[in-house]
C-alpha cells in the first residue's frame, strides 16, 4: 500500500514529526515523558490513565469496570491544586511516588490494597473540602480512566498551539492539553480535517476518530497550579470552536518513537 506524506506540499515542505510522547498514569495528575512506547491495536499508551482518584460518592466496580464521565473523579477542570503534585510511576515495581514542592510526600506499592489505601488517605488530606466523601484510589485491570470511552491516543499539533498563543498574546504550555503525542511540522489546524483519515508513524498505524473539545482543565498552569487563562473561551472567540487536537485509535501496533515521521494515507 502506498502512503502519501501529508507534509509533501512542495519541495520546501517540512516533514511532520512526533516531537514528544507522554503518558499520565494517574488521571488528572502529572505527565511522564517517554522516548518510545510499544502500542497494541485497540489499546492506549500502556499505563496511561491506569489509575484514578474517585470521589467517595462514586460507585465504580473494579471487577466489572465501565467508563464513567470525568466528573466522578478528582480532575484539573475543578481541582487546580492537583497541579501542585508531581508523580512518578514505576511499571516494574508498581510503585507510585508523589512529590509536592520537590519533596516526596507519598511512596506506595499500588498493586495491593494497603498501598492504594495510603494514596487515598493522602488525597483525603490534600483535597480536604474539595472531594465528595473520602477519595478512593482506583485501578481496574485493562481499564483506562480516559475522558472518552474509546481506548485512544491524543495528538496535539504544536503549530495550532502557537496560533492560540498568537491570539492570547502570551505563551501557552503545550502540556496544558495533556496529549500523548505532540506533532511538529504540520500547518496550524490542519489536523481538524483528519477525522476519519488514517496515518502511519513508523510501525504504528492510526485512524483519527474525533476532535478533542477543550474544558476548564486547560486553564490550569501546569507549573504554577494557578487558573491563569481561559482557553475554551479564547478558542470560541478567536476560532469559533472549542477544539484542540484529535483522538486516534491504534489499528496496527508497533513501536512509536520520538522523531518518527508521520505519513497520512490518501483519502
In short, what is this structure?
Mean pLDDT is 93; it is low at 1-11. Helix content is 13%, strand content 30%.
Overall 3D shape: globular
Topology, number of strands? 15
Our count of domains comes out at 2
CATH topology of the largest domain: M1 Pyruvate Kinase, Domain 3
Strand order of the largest sheet: 2-1-10-9-13-12-11-15
Task: Summarize the helices and strands and which ones pair or pack.
Blueprint: E1 17-23, E2 32-34, E3 36-39, E4 51-54, E5 85-90, E6 95-100, E7 103-109, H1 113-126, E8 136-139, E9 153-157, H2 158-168, E10 181-184, E11 198-201, E12 204-213, H3 231-239, E13 243-252, E14 254-257, E15 262-264
Parallel strand pairs: 9-10
Antiparallel strand pairs: 1-2, 1-10, 3-14, 4-8, 5-6, 6-7, 9-13, 11-12, 11-15, 12-13
Structural summary, described in words:
By secondary structure, the protein is of the alpha+beta class. It has two domains: 17-23 and 149-264, PK beta-barrel domain-like (M1 Pyruvate Kinase, Domain 3, Beta Barrel); 49-139, no CATH class. The chain contains three helices and 15 strands. Strands 2-1-10-9-13-12-11-15 form an eight-stranded mixed beta sheet. A three-stranded antiparallel beta sheet has the order 5-6-7, with helices on one face. A hairpin with a 2-residue loop joins β11 and β12. The two termini are 13 Å apart. Residues 1-11 have low confidence and may be disordered.
Amino acid at each position: 500500500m502506498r502512503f502519501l506524506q501529508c507534509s509533501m506540499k512542495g519541495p520546501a515542505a517540512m516533514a511532520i514529526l512526533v516531537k514528544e510522547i507522554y503518558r499520565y498514569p494517574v488521571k488528572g495528575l502529572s505527565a511522564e515523558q517517554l522516548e518510545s512506547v510499544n502500542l497494541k491495536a485497540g489499546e492506549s499508551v500502556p499505563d496511561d490513565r491506569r489509575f484514578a482518584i474517585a470521589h467517595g460518592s462514586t460507585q465504580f466496580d473494579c471487577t466489572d469496570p465501565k467508563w464513567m464521565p470525568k466528573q466522578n473523579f478528582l480532575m484539573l477542570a475543578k481541582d487546580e491544586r492537583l497541579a501542585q503534585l508531581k508523580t512518578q510511576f514505576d511499571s516494574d515495581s508498581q510503585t507510585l511516588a508523589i512529590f509536592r514542592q520537590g519533596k516526596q510526600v507519598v511512596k506506595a506499592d499500588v498493586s495491593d490494597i494497603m498501598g492504594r489505601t495510603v494514596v487515598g488517605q493522602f488525597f483525603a488530606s490534600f483535597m480536604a473540602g474539595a472531594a465528595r466523601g473520602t477519595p478512593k484510589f482506583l485501578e481496574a485491570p485493562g481499564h483506562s480512566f480516559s475522558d472518552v470511552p474509546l481506548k485512544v491516543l491524543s495528538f496535539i499539533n504544536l503549530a495550532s498551539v502557537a496560533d492560540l498563543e498568537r491570539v492570547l498574546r502570551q505563551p501557552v504550555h503545550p502540556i496544558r492539553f495533556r496529549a500523548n503525542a505532540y506533532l511538529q511540522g504540520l500547518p496550524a489546524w490542519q489536523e481538524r480535517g483528519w477525522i476519519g483519515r488514517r496515518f502511519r508513524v513508523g510501525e504504528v498505524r492510526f485512524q483519527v476518530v474525533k476532535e478533542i473539545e477543550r474544558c476548564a482543565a486547560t486553564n490550569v498552569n501546569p507549573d504554577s497550579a494557578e487558573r491563569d487563562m481561559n482557553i475554551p473561551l479564547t478558542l470560541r472567540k478567536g476560532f469559533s470552536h472549542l477544539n484542540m487536537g484529535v483522538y486516534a485509535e491504534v489499528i496496527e501496533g508497533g513501536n512509536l518513537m520520538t522523531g518518527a515521521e508521520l505519513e497520512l494515507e490518501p483519502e
